[in-house]
Amino acid sequence: MPGENCLLSVVNVGKSYRTFKGQTRILRGVSFDLPKGSMAGLLGESGSGKTTIARIITGQEKPDRGSVYLDGNLLLPLGKRPFSHAADIQYVFQDPYAALEPGYTVEQTLKEPLWLCRRRRRQNTINPQEALDKVGLTYAKWAFKKIGELSGGQRQRVAIARALIPRPRLLIADESTSMLDVETANSILDVLQAVNAETGLSVLFITHQFSVIHKTCDLVFVLYKGFIVERGETSAVMNFPSSEYTRQLFESMKFLGEVKTFV
Questions:
Q1: How many whole angstroms separate alpha carbon 156 and alpha carbon 154?
Q2: For the chain, how big is the Rg over CA atoms in Å?
Q3: What integer pLDDT is reported at residue 3 of this predicted model?
Q4: How is domain 6-101+174-261 classified at the CATH fold level?
Q5: What is the DSSP letter of 127?
Q6: How many helices (H) and strands (E) does the chain have?
Q7: Mind listing the pLDDT tens digit for each residue in 153-191?
Q8: Which run of H or E residues covers position 87?
Q9: Per-domain residue ranges for the chain?
Q10: E strand segments, 77-127
């Protein structure tokens, strides 16, 4: 059983999809534990199963086998999941332009989850002004702007603020900086680090970028062809990878110039 400090536990999760070629196995017995208050990264190339894991954790997908636990409680598929468990896990999507309604104001965007939490009697939520403060946006300046007026980085800050409203215990950031320029991406990572330091919110990054892992994460799990092939503290995995795949991935990042930022 997971220890007392374990927030999220993924246990022997498997998932297949039916395609025109037949059954395609995406996840093959994935297991990992995420400690409370940690910043962890699930690293892998496109098609490795990273987003499938995230969708299973949030209940959007049902595993063929295995289970996911939050603080020792079994997480059911979304339609059967208690609201408290659903609200405890929030998601920041890759595309900030598709994730938010462009015709809404920032205030409307943030009041929507607040209204839902109050309707379902969830206590101890964060008000929109506090949520904006946490992501570096002042309420007076930004609350009444339309989402459509904002840049990609500003929209992603609002998306994070929206995710903070229910006061979740886990935030999943699914390639949430990959569509942003380097400077803006780094500012978003700074926001997430600051929120983690201030509130103890655990963050799981879904990413293919070593630079994201190095800048933000205490732990890293490397996913390849549906298996976790490497896990451990970020510095140990980056400097002394034990998996051949991780070493090859590291070398490819050297070739692309990303590795020089943290080696």
A1: 5
A2: 18
A3: 66
A4: Rossmann fold (3.40.50)
A5: -
A6: 11, 10
A7: 999 999 999 999 999 999 999 988 888 888 998 999 999
A8: helix 83-88
A9: 6-101+174-261
A10: 89-92
Say how far apart CA 233 and CA 242 lie, in whole Å. Answer: 13
Interatomic CA distance for residues 108 and 51, integer angstroms: 28
This prediction's pTM? 0.92
Beta carbons of 42 and 239 less than 8 angstroms apart: no
Residue 126 structure tokens: 């964060």
Average of pLDDT values for 114-140? 95
Tell me, what amino acid is at 61?
A: E
Answer yes or no: is pLDDT of 100 > 70: yes
Report how far residue 188's alpha carbon sits from residue 260's, in angstroms, rounded to the nearest whole number: 21
Among residues of the chain, what percentage have pLDDT more than 70?
Answer: 95
Read off the amino acid at residue 20: F
Which H, E and C letters describe 171-209, residue by residue?
EEEECCCCCCCHHHHHHHHHHHHHHHHHHCCEEEEEECC
- DSSP SS3 for 22: strand
Give the HSE-up count for residue 171: Cα atoms under 13 Å, Cβ half-sphere: 29
* Residue from 155, 220, 153, 162 nearest 189 by CA: 153
Q: Are 135 and 157 in contact (CB under 8 A)?
A: yes
Tokens, residue 235: 């510095």
Instruction: Please say whether the beta carbons of 205 and 218 come within 8 A.
Output: no
Q: Are 71 and 169 in contact (CB under 8 A)?
A: yes
Report d(CA 30, CA 16) in Å as an integer. Answer: 13
State the helix-helix crossing angle for 182-199 and 152-164, rounded to 10 degrees: 20
DSSP 124: S
Q: Return the C-alpha torsion angle 210, 29, 35, 239, nearest 10.
A: -30
48 or 190: which carries more pLDDT confidence?
190
